[in-house]
Structures are given as structure tokens and as C-alpha cells.
Automatic annotation (TrEMBL), chain A:
Single Gene Ontology MF annotation: nitrogenase activity
Keyword Metal-binding: no
Designated name of the protein: Nitrogenase
Family: Belongs to the NifD/NifK/NifE/NifN family.
The Nitrogenase/oxidoreductase component domain, residue ranges: 20-439
Pfam families to which the protein is assigned, alphabetical: Oxidored_nitro
From TrEMBL, chain B:
Region feature (Disordered): 451-478
Domain (Nitrogenase/oxidoreductase component): residue spans on this chain: 39-434
SUPFAM superfamilies: Helical backbone' metal receptor
Family from the record: Belongs to the NifD/NifK/NifE/NifN family.
The keyword Acetylation belongs to this UniProt entry's keyword annotation: no
Stretches assigned to coiled coil: none
Protein name (database record): Nitrogenase iron-molybdenum cofactor biosynthesis protein NifE
Function recorded in the entry: This protein may play a role in the biosynthesis of the prosthetic group of nitrogenase (FeMo cofactor).
One GO MF term: nitrogenase activity
Keywords tagged on the record: Nitrogen fixation
Alphabetical GO biological process terms: protein-containing complex assembly
Stretches with biased composition (Low complexity): 465-478
Classification via InterPro entries: Nase/OxRdtase_comp1, Nase_comp1_CS, NifE, NifE-like
């Protein structure tokens, strides 16, 4: 059964299951070496998003703003944007500034492309950083659209020339954790592949302490790497939601013939198999021993632990591709996703959920798109889940329903270490499986009259 | 890169004793400076958020609502409607054709669903641009449901947080004076500018209760619409914080003749002074109140001081930095740090006034840096230069301190620990102690350098102490 939002008159939103478009863009820009995200809008947007992102990553997240005031809103934000860029150059000496618009500047109709053109003319005598722009009106789409949009902008605006073949593989992983990015690099190494991760905030948003304050944290995809993406032997792009859309991978394929492989986000066994097979085909190498061993350990664990979680009922919510990945994992291990929900609404989501669960479940989960937590709760309350799988935002609901909550994705701001949570690959699946089994055991222990010492 | 100040920012930073006091403030944030400030909407939302039985509907695209969903520690003793995040989630279509229809429908739907005692409708940047008539929509819905529905003119771009405070106060002022005040004690106050973070208002209310003073309304922590409506029946307004509710106090003074006093519940002196101010105000009606108050203060201090002394032993000589939203809080914190034997070397705020900063310059030691509307680079520069041990601030400041291997105390709206009252002073001291004395600093590159003598600690002076175990364990850490 495919359910849409249960309300006939959708007018208000209560506890949104999405974030706004520019937030996603700032995260993508944060994954570029020497990059500073810049929001063209009023000061509050930058500050709110900084606060929100900091609570998850616990790292400095400097987002510059053109800090528009009332006058700028009337006469246009161009002068402030230029002044802001100059100030960021003076204080941060960035290599790249990623400019994302906001609802304010989209509505007043600032032509950022033209303003940046003027900026380059006016200040051409200065050593200018690369300035990448993306249009992210917050009244359209979600943070994921902002994220993918910024990745596309980076690829389109920075990678403009065909370079010599580099032998590298481009990986557009989507919005995953810092640990996921590190693990991807590791997988690449196992295949003797140099990967260009776009973006790569694994160090910039999960780095060490400093002796001297670093205005821009070390790490990120270098400008050189991005410019060389045209010479890659292939691109991998994670996310079923990207199919048929204009993406960085599609653009590189169209302009430079870099073959683009769109894969589901490699969460769970089958999606990870798909990634490994693709890498194996690409390199002409068998799946490396270390990775095969990880797969073996995962299967072994699935056998050891399957009974503890058998038949549990789960509600999964959040960003489309993270939700799809988690749904896939749950279906594979014998937990029944009964409701799968996202605040986004690109179409095709229900079909993707069903496809991912095919052959694994006695009945298909209900699917909800374009919903808020009010809608999810209205339906989930009736479905009586044992388990919620999603970001921290489901906490209050889990508490009300006396259900467990496995925190995955973003934001995780009521637990520690969300940036180091591994979702991807066999190892990610194993870690998530361990957590799920332990949640079940802990519940059994806590609700038992005698509290078994051995389970 | 050399961490020099932007030329335009120099007027907003003052070092006490180095030059005659002169400070620019109340300026628009500089484009590209990565200000720690928020916006008008944020100011309004902050002030009104804890009114727990009102509907708080954000009219705008989803971000403004979602980033303010249950982010504060404002506790309620009853309803918790304030902890939900309501939005009209404006879409492109609404931006083109106007959002009034959607706003009205959303209000109707949510009021029917939650039966709130009142509704606040927050305007955001985009609503200011497309020109939705909030006033008209609110009036219409108000008539339909018979509850107060108040527009909050909080378009983000119209200034900083401070303008948001004013917008919130204007909205609340519509409520004040609309209910019966019979039965209110002549010894009565309203608690203004406290948000009941971690239940702090309950601490203060207990003190006032022990003094025999009735609290009519908490504005806005643990707030109720009905209380605000009869707030004008109180004899006195106690206004805390740098100005979040000062405008409302002024309006009430003008319209209802209710006087106000400025108070602070942070730190020992300010807490005691605030209670004495209340006693002083009511002593003509109740001559015994002064005795009751000093007894209360004595009892509390007798319990507190020995506990503080233990902590102070470790903290003596350490250096603190303060960066807060409103400067008023900084006054109290400076005094609180003195009780811990600590020295404040950097103090700043997002929205202080010239008078605030002048006062800060008066009460701090020479060499203290005072800063208005700071940004991460400036804060990190001075943390380092002033060799700070503990930094007090909010979520955005925390990683700046931590990245440099410096202790931190969250003194923000998300905190879960009560820092007000005498017990709050103890909690604060525990917090500072827990951070400053943690062994983790021994492993930080900066501290390690200091222990090994490779970092210049000249700024510290002869009286300063490093963290005691540094020298002992640094070898093992490196």
C-alpha cells in the first residue's frame, strides 16, 4: 500500500522532517579545501545554520553572511555581497568561497551571477579565490536539494576543462557522516584506487585540536582534484533520489564523457554489494580480501544476532537516501520497516522503497512523502513500532511511544559522536546491526523482572 | 595567516586602561565578518518562545521554524505547546501569490487542533518582502476563535536581535491589561526577562515566596497567557537580562504605572542585591520583609560559601573569557568569577549598548579586552593572546574554545543546569571547575607547549598558575 499524507488540506507544518535548502549547500562547500561557505542573505540564516551544524559535528562551522539589512532588501544586496567577499578574503584567505542564496535574496531577485561577474571585473587586480554559486531558495526543496545543488555547482563551475586521464574515480557520496567519508577512502585504497570525494568534510568537520586557531580547517577536496574530475575514469554517485536529475556526475558525463554510475547509498548488504561489484568491474580486480572478510564477518553477525531482533517493527524517517539505505538494511536483517517517511518529495520514493525491500518482507512498508512529524506520528502511533530509525528529531516521539530510537544520519544532537557514526559499507552495516541487537537486548534486560546476566 | 583585525571592526574592541573609553556598538553586522549574531526573528522567538500555552506559528519557509524547534531549555510546569515547531512552510507558489490564505488556514487548523490560549504569528524575512498583511489575518482569526492572535513583526533583515526583542514586547503588550487583577497581593511582582532554563524561575519564585512576595506573571519562562494578561496588577516588575523585556517594562510603566527595577539572579552579590531591592521596595507596606530577606540570604550563603571555598582553591588565578548575547549577564559573571578567585580577561556581547560597555570597562581590570559583535577569528585571537583557561559562551563559541584546547562553560539557552540563584552559583562553580580542572588539557598541543616552556605565557604574569598537573603529566602525553 502506498499512502500519501493523510491530511486532505495540507496547510500547516508541525515539526518538519526536513531542513532548508541553503543548509545543505553550506555543508557541501565546507567539504572543499580552503573553502568558506557564504550565505547571501540576512545574518540570522548563517547564524542559525552554524548553530545547528555545530550541535551535530561539534566543530567550528564558519558561515559568512552578506548580513543584509532593510536597505539592502529594498535596493539589492549586491554591494554587501561584494563587501562580504572582500572581508572573507582578507580574514580567511580562502581558495574557494561557496555562495548560496537564501529566500530573501531569491525573492528580491538579486542576480548573483551578474554580481559575481561585476565583482571579478572590479577586483580583478586582486588574487581572487574561486567563487562558486548555487541558487538555494529555501521556499523550494529541502537541505538535500541544497547539498546536491552545491555539489553540482562545484563540479560545473570549477571543472571546466578536459584534463588528461587521471585514473581516479569521482565519488559523490551524498550527505553522509565524516566517518563514512573516511571509510570510502579506505574502500578506494583497498581497490588501489585514488578517489576524489566531492565533497569531503571528513577532516574539516571532524579534525584535531589546534595550537593556533585555523580560520579554515585543514582537509577537504582540493581545487586541483575538482578541476581534474574531468579526467577521472568514472564517477560514482550515491543516492536513488538522484536518478534522472541533473547532478554533478551527469554533468561530468555529458561534458567530458566520464561514465557515471548512480548507485543506492551503500547502506546494508545488498547496496554495499552493488558498490563493490561496480568497483570490481571498474578496476577489473576481484573484491579485495580485506573487504571480503568484512562481508564475511557481517554475515556471521547477522546469523548470530538475527533472533534478538526478529519481527521488530520499525519506523524509518529522514532524508530520502539515508532512509532508503536504512530501510534496506532493516529489511535484510529481519526487522520489519512498517512506515518509511521523508519530508522531501521528489516522486518515485515509494517505488524505490518497494524495490529495495523486494523479496525480503512479508508485506511492503507504508511510505509517506512530503510529511512532517505530525503526519508521521499520526500514522506511526497506530502502527505501534518497537523501534524508530532516524535522526535525533524523533526522540520525543520515541519516548512517548516507549520505542527505541537508533540515531542515524543528521542531525544527531542529543547524542555524542554523530559525525563518527559509520553507516556505509559492510563495516557500517555491522556496526548498525550491533547497535540494533544491543538495543533489543538492553530493553529485554531492563524490562525483565530478574535481569539476566547472560542473554 | 596573521590574525589581524578588520579595519572596520577596530572601533568595536576596547582594551581597558590602554586608552580613554570609546566604543562603537549597535551597528549592523559587517558583511563577511562571520558575526556570532542572529536576526530580528531570533530575538522575538527567544523572548516569546517559553509562553507554554500559546501557539507559536512561524510564517515563512521551513528553516526559521526548524532551527528554533525545541532548542531552548525553557521548562514549563504545565502545557508544552512551545516545544513544538509550527510553520506555514512557504513554497514558491506562496511567495508569488502571497501567503495570507495559507497563513489563515494554518492558524485555523492549529488552533482547532491545540486549543491554545493565544497565538503568536512571527513574520520572517520573506513575509516582509511579499507584504502579507499579518495584522489583518490575525484580527480575522482572533474574531473567529475569541483568543488573542498577535502578529510579531520580526522580519529577519530589519536589524539585529534587539529589534526582535522590541517586536516581541509590542506583541505581548497587547495582552497586558486585558484581564481582571482582583485578589493580587500588594506585595507582588512580575518576573521579567527570565526564561526558566533548567527550572531557574522556580528557584527565584521560591526565594520570593519565602520573602512573602507573590509572583503574578513570569515573562516569559514557564509563561502563561492568562498571567501576562493580568501582569499589570503586580506592584513591581523585576527586569532581568540586557533588554529582552525592558521595552515591555517601559510600556507597562507608561500605560499602567507599574515601576520596574533591574535585577540579576546570577552570582552571589547580584542575587542578594536583587532580593534586597525587592525588600526595599516593599518595606513600607511590610516592614518585616527586610528581616526575612536578610535571613534568607544568610541561610543560603551559609550553605553556599564553604562549598565554594573548596572549588576556589583549585581555580584561584585562572583566567576567564566571557562572550554572551546581552551585556547585562556579563556584569554578573565578572563578579561570579571573582568569587572563584578567577580573573576575567576578555568580555564581550552580541548586542551591548555603549552604556553597557562603559560599565564593563569600569568593573574590569586594566588589560581586559571588551568586544562588541565579535566573530570566531577575533575571539580565538584574544583567547590565545590572553591565555584563557575557561571561556563562557554559547553553542557557536564552544568549538572555538575547544579547538584551542581551552575549557568552556555553556551559559546559553540550551543549558540543562540551573545557574541562577545561590544554588546556581554553586552549579556554575562546579561547571567551571569540571572544565578547568579536567586532565584533558594536559594533552592539548597548546598546554603541552606551555608546560614544556615552548609557549610564551608572558600574558599570564607572575600570579598566574597553569593547570597544576601539567608539568607532571606532559611528558607522558607527548
Amino acid at each position: 500500500m502506498i499512502a500519501t499524507a493523510p491530511k486532505t488540506n495540507y496547510v500547516s507544518t508541525t515539526n518538519a522532517c526536513k531542513l532548508c535548502t541553503p543548509l545543505g549547500a553550506t555543508l557541501a562547500f565546507k567539504g572543499v579545501a580552503g573553502g568558506v561557505p557564504f550565505l547571501h542573505g540576512s545574518q540570522g540564516c548563517a547564524t542559525y545554520m552554524r548553530r545547528y551544524i555545530i550541535s551535530h559535528f561539534r566543530e567550528p562551522m564558519d558561515i559568512a553572511s552578506s548580513a543584509l539589512g532593510e536597505k539592502n532588501a529594498i535596493y539589492g544586496g549586491g554591494p554587501n555581497l561584494k563587501k562580504g567577499l572582500i572581508n572573507v578574503m582578507r580574514k580567511y584567505a580562502p581558495e574557494v568561497i561557496g555562495v548560496a542564496t537564501t529566500c530573501l535574496t531569491e525573492t528580491i531577485g538579486d542576480d548573483v551571477h551578474m554580481i559575481l561577474h561585476e565583482f571579478r571585473q572590479e577586483f580583478g587586480d586582486l588574487p581572487l579565490p574561486a567563487v562558486v554559486q548555487v541558487s538555494t531558495p529555501s521556499f523550494s526543496g529541502t537541505h538535500m536539494d541544497g547539498f546536491h545543488g552545491a555539489v553540482l555547482s562545484l563540479a560545473e563551475q570549477l571543472c571546466v576543462d578536459q584534463v588528461e586521464p587521471t585514473g581516479r574515480v569521482n565519488v559523490m557520496s551524498g550527505f553522509v557522516s565524516a566517518e563514512d567519508l573516511r571509510h570510502m577512502r579506505e574502500i578506494g585504497r583497498a581497490f588501489d584506487l585514488e578517489l576524489t570525494l566531492l565533497p569531503d568534510y571528513s577532516d574539516t568537520l571532524d579534525g584535531p585540536t589546534y595550537d593556533e586557531y585555523q580560520p579554515i580547517a585543514a582537509g577537504g577536496t582540493t581545487l586541483e582534484e575538482i578541476r581534474s574530475m574531468s579526467g577521472a575514469r568514472a564517477s560514482l554517485e550515491f543516492g536513488t533520489s538522484l536518478v534522472g536529475r541533473k547532478t554533478a556526475g551527469a554533468s561530468l558525463e555529458k561534458r567530458f564523457g566520464v561514465v557515471n554510475h548512480q548507485l543506492p547509498m551503500p547502506i546494508g548488504l545488498r547496496a554495499t554489494d552493488a558498490l563493490m561489484e561496480t568497483l570490481s568491474e571498474l578496476t577489473g580486480q576481484p573484491i579485495p580480501e580485506a573487504i571480503a572478510a568484512e562481508r564475511g564477518r557481517l554475515l556471521d553477525a547477522l546469523v548470530d544476532g538475527h533472533k534478538y531482533i526478529a519481527g521488530q517493527r520499525a519506523v524509518v524517517y529522514g532524508d530520502e537516501d539515508m532512509v532508503l539505505g536504512m530501510t534496506s538494511l532493516l529489511a535484510e536483517i529481519g526487522i520489519r520497516p512498517v512506515l518509511v517517511a521523508t519530508g522531501a518529495g521528489g516522486g518515485g520514493f515509494a517505488e524505490a522503497v518497494h524495490e529495495t525491500c523486494a523479496g525480503l518482507l512479508p508485506e511492503m512498508p507504508e511510505v509517506m512523502e512530503k510529511v512532517d512529524f505530525h503526519d508521521i506520528a499520526a500514522r506511526a502511533g497506530e502502527l505501534k513500532p518497537d523501534l524508530l530509525v532516524g535522526n535525533s528529531k524523533g526522540y520525543r516521539y520515541a519516548r512517548d511511544w516507549n520505542a527505541d530510537l537508533l540515531r542515524v544520519g543528521f542531525p544527531i544532537h542529543d547524542r555524542f559522536g554523530g559525525q563518527r557514526l559509520l553507516h556505509l559499507g559492510y563495516r557500517g552495516a555491522l556496526g548498525l546491526f550491533d547497535s540494533l541487537v544491543n538495543l533489543a537486548i538492553e530493553r529485554k534486560q531492563n524490562t525483565s523482572d530478574i535481569g539476566y546476566g547472560y542473554i | 595567516m596573521k590574525n589581524e583585525l578588520l579595519e572596520e571592526r577596530k572601533g568595536q574592541i576596547h582594551t581597558v586602561g590602554e586608552s580613554p573609553f570609546d566604543m562603537a556598538c549597535n551597528r549592523e553586522s559587517l558583511a563577511g565578518a562571520v558575526s556570532q549574531r542572529a536576526c530580528v526573528f531570533c530575538g522575538s522567538r527567544v523572548v516569546l518562545y517559553p509562553i507554554a500555552d500559546a501557539l507559536h506559528l512561524v510564517h515563512g519557509p521551513i528553516g526559521c521554524a526548524v532551527y528554533t524547534w525545541d532548542i531552548r531549555g525553557a521548562l514549563s510546569s504545565g502545557p508544552e505547546l512551545h516545544r513544538l515547531s509550527f510553520s506555514t512552510d512557504l513554497q514558491e507558489r506562496d511567495v508569488i501569490f502571497g501567503g495570507e490564505t495559507k497563513l489563515e488556514a494554518a492558524l485555523v487548523e492549529l488552533i482547532e487542533r491545540h486549543q491554545p490560549k493565544a497565538a503568536f504569528v512571527y513574520s520572517t524575512c520573506i513575509v516582509g518582502l511579499i507584504g502579507d498583511d499579518l495584522e489583518a489575518v490575525c484580527r480575522k482569526v482572533e474574531e473567529r476563535f475569541g483568543i488573542p492572535v498577535m502578529p510579531v513583526q520580526s522580519e529577519g533583515f530589519k536589524g539585529s536581535k534587539r529589534e526582535g526583542y522590541l517586536a516581541a514586547c509590542k506583541a505581548m503588550n497587547r495582552l497586558v491589561g486585558t484581564a481582571d487583577t482582583t485578589g493580587i497581593s500588594p506585595l507582588s511582582v512580575n518576573i521579567f526577562g527570565d526564561f526558566n532554563l533548567a527550572g531557574e524561575i522556580w528557584i527565584i519564585r521560591k526565594y520570593l515566596e519565602r520573602m512573602g512576595v507573590e509572583v503574578v506573571a513570569n515573562v516569559t519562562g514557564d509563561g502563561r497567557v492568562a498571567d501576562v494578561q493580568r501582569a499589570h496588577g503586580a506592584a513591581l516588575n523585576l527586569v532581568q537580562c540586557s533588554g529582552a523585556t525592558l521595552d515591555l517594562a517601559k510600556m507597562m510603566e507608561e500605560e499602567h504605572g507599574v515601576p520596574h527595577v533591574r535585577v540579576s539572579y546570577l552570582g552571589i552579590e547580584d542575587m542578594a542585591d536583587s532580593l534586597y531591592k525587592v525588600a526595599e521596595f516593599f518595606k513600607d507596606i511590610d516592614p518585616d520583609i527586610e528581616r526575612r530577606t536578610s535571613e534568607l540570604v544568610r541561610e543560603e550563603l551559609e550553605a553556599l560559601m564553604p562549598k565554594l571555598a573548596g572549588l576556589r582553591k583549585d581555580l584561584e588565578g585562572k583566567r576567564a573569557a566571557i562572550y554572551v548575547g546581552g551585556a547585562f549577564k556579563a556584569f554578573s559573571l565578572i563578579k561570579a568569577f571573582r568569587h572563584l578567585g578567577m580573573k576575567v580577561v576578555l568580555v564581550g556581547s552580541q548586542t551591548g549598548t555603549r552604556e553597557d560597555y562603559r560599565e564593563l570597562a569600569t568593573i574590569t581590570d586594566p588589560g581586559t579586552v571588551i568586544i562588541d559583535d565579535a566573530n570566531p577569528l577575533e575571539l580565538s585571537k584574544y583567547i590565545k593572546e590572553k591565555d584563557v583557561d575557561v571561556f563562557v559562551g554559547g553553542v557557536k563559541e564552544r568549538p572555538i574554545a575547544f579547538k584551542l584546547g581551552v575549557g568552556f562553560c555553556d551559559h546559553n539557552h540550551e543549558r540543562k543546569i540551573a545557574l541562577e540563584g545561590f544554588i546556581g552559583m554553586y552549579n556554575f562553580a562546579l561547571e567551571i571547575h569540571a572544565s578547568a580542572m579536567s586532565p584533558v588539557w594536559n594533552f592539548m598541543p597548546r598546554r603541552r607547549g606551555r608546560a614544556e616552556g615552548t609557549v610564551d605565557s608572558g600574558a599570564r604574569g607572575p600570579e598566574g598558575k597553569g593547570c597544576p598537573p601539567c608539568a607532571a603529566t606532559a611528558g607522558g602525553a607527548s
